[in-house]
Structures are given as structure tokens and as C-alpha cells.
Amino acid sequence: MADSGSTSACRARGRPCSLPSDPAPIDVGLLSPVTVGSADAVSDAAVLDALVTAEAALARAWGEVAAAPADAVAGISGALGWSGPGQLCIGHGADLGALAEAAVAGGNPVIPLVSALRARVAPEHRAWVHRGATSQDILDSALMLVARRACTDVSAALERAEAALTALARTHRGTVAAARTLGQHAVPTTFGLRAATWLAGVRRAGVRLEAAASTLPAQLGGAAGTLAAAVEAAGHALGDEAARDAAVRLPTLLAAELGLAAPDAPWHTVRWPVTELGDALVQVMDAAGVVAADVVTLSRTEIAEVSEGAAGGSSAMPQKQNPAASVLIRSAAIRAPHLGASLHASAALAVDERPDGAWHAEWPVLRELLRLALGTAATLARLVDGLVIDADAMARNTAASGGLIVAERLSAVAAPLVGPDRLAAIIARANGGDDLRGLLASESALAGLDLDELLDPAHYTGLAGILTDRLTGDTRA
User: Which residues form the Adenylosuccinate lyase C-terminal domain (predicted)?
Assistant: First the structure.
């Protein structure tokens, strides 16, 4: 049998195993369908591009403070494939598989990457590759760059979802539906208010995500967060008097080249950028999860008030139209909080001036949260844009209790006339199957009431319309 190149095959032959230089994707979303199509933005290849970009940006920052010679900056920028501020380097030629294998020895991919990048530039310029930085500076900056770019895509998808939810809420402002609490009919509401409530959650998550993304900082602190190496390097190039000023400016200039926020100070062990971003990503999936959970419930055969426009089928039951998009969103919403908690655990264990394992634990967790958020937001936008609403089913379900859905209203209007105990007896008989309207009509104390109006769910939706207008920004309120 031909050698497949697998690690099991090479072990069987008693020779060292190595990753192929261009390995096939290990995870394309086979077991996480919600993430299909979202991997590229946060893939190993994207992270590698961002790492190279951080190194190129650092060299350019040295040029900005007039420490690095212009020809060195130009040479490094060209060799590393610099594409412009906030853009990823392309054409740098770094070997992803080789770097992954070499990263094992030092515990991170930056160490072998620096050697590989220096080999690509002219010997006289190599000293300005990675000058004054440590591995964490480059990796943190790269992950923030990847995250910032991914968050832009998540925000765009959330905006599409918001637009679709706004349209749903306005269209169904007066569509009466049964509100449910603890799984049971409660009082009448409108589908418009339900959609507007979904909108409020999604909008708030989007606002929080944009706030977190806009403050993601670059990282530059040197070996232990003092920037001592940067001061020393600047001193050799500029003289002692200008060295400290140049070193102080360097992190801000690095951030500008990367399109990130300028850090107030190194944050090697103060991990708020990661935890705040993680919390915002979890909130995105919380908000989407609420929508998905409601759609799953409302699309049940016995309720049938909504359906997904492109529902999935069943491999065994051809009659089924499964709410596949909602199911996938829920899967992400269930996973996300645990990932967010892991980021907080890592932050709490960030000891000394460089975490020994806690920092490393962040990398795959943050990447998975970003990937889930990318897939969830895109799936949510498709779900709500194609959601099919059955107003007739909502009317049937609202009427299914024979008027008991307005029992709260009866307590306010009828109880003062017949007494609370008598009304309780009437409600109990209606719950047992007797006709509620007939029971009320037989009470002489209620003869002056318009029972049809009193029992009409559409006349007991409170401020549903006004709240819908407020949440959708409609000025008619």
C-alpha cells in the first residue's frame, strides 16, 4: 500500500514524523457545521500572515522613529509582503507546516518564524527584524489583528440580521400571538414585539462587540514589559537623549501600522483585551441563541407559527422540515460560554511577567470563539431574512384556550363585579372545558360588559405596539 504520509504510517516505519509543508485542512467544519465557511478568516494561515505582518509593522515603526535606515525598512517590507496598514502581509513565503513543527521546541511559532524571516532579508537589514520585541509581543499583536478583522465580518452579518429583524417587527407590529412563560400560554402579545425583542438583544451584542473590537491594542513590551531592549536599540541609533522618547512612541506607531489601538502599557499579564473580546463574542452567541431557541419552539408541528425559509430535511423521515439553521446556532450558543470561561481562567492565572501556559491556552480558545461567532452571525442573518411567519397559526393558537389567555384582564375587570372567588370558580370551570364566554354571560353582574371586546386578545396587548416602535426606531410612537 502506498505511503499516505500520515503520522501513523511514518511511526510504523520507525522514522521521525513531520508535518507536510502544505498540510490538508484538519478541520473544515465537518463536526461543527455552523462554522463552515468561516475558517479562512481565523485559520493557521491567517494567523501566520498576521504574525509576519506584526514583524513587518515593527520594522516600519522603527523607521518612523528614524532608528532603522530607510533601506532596511523598505527591504524588510518588500521581503515580508507588506500590503499596507491594517492589511495582512502576502507572498512572504513562510512555510506553515515547518513552522508548526518547529514551534514545539520553544512553545510558540514566533521563535522559528523570526529565523525564517531574517533569512529572507538582506544580511545588513536582519538586525531590524524583531528588534526590541519578544515572542508575546508579536503573537498578541497578530491575534488582535486577526480578531479585529474577524469582528468586522461578524459586525457586518449582525447588521444584516438587525435589518431583517427590524422589517419583521414593523411588518408584524399588530400580529397577535400568544406570549409564553415557562412554556405555557400567558397573555397576548404581538409577533412584532417578539421580533423587536430579538432585535434589541442582537443590536446590544453588536454594539458591545464593536466597542471591544475598536479597543483591541497592539502589544510591545520586550522581554518583561519594560521595553529596555527598545530603549537600548534606539540609543545605539539615535543617541541616549532621544532613545527614551523613541521607545515610548514605538508601541503607538506599531499599533498604527497594524490598524489597532495604541496600548497604554504592555499587557503581557493583564489580559483584559482578550477577556473583554471573549465576553463580547459570547454575548453575540447569547443573542443569536435566544432567536434560535424561539424559532425551534415556534416551528414545532403543533405550534407551526414560524418556519425557516430553507428548512433542512431528515435522513429517515421525509415529511420533516427541520429548523437546521436554528439548531446550528443553538449548538454554538451552548459551546460559547465555556470557551469564554476558559479565557477568564487563563487571565486569572497569568503569573509573573509572562504566563507559563495560561497565555498559550488562550490561543485556540479565542480562535474558536471567533470562528463560532463568524458562523453564528452569518447563519443568524440568513435565518431571520428567510423566516416565514404564519399569522393564521398565531391566531389559532391564541384562541386555543377559549379566552383564558386574557384571564389576567378578567381579574382586573370582572373580579370587582362578581368577586374574586366567583371569578376563580368560573376560570376553573373554563379550564375544565366549559365555554368561558357562556359562563361570563350567565353572570348578571357582568351584563354591562362587552364580552366580545373583553375576550378579544387583540385588545389586551398593552404597550406592545409602542414598545415595538421604540425598539425599531419607528417615530410613530
Answer: 402-472
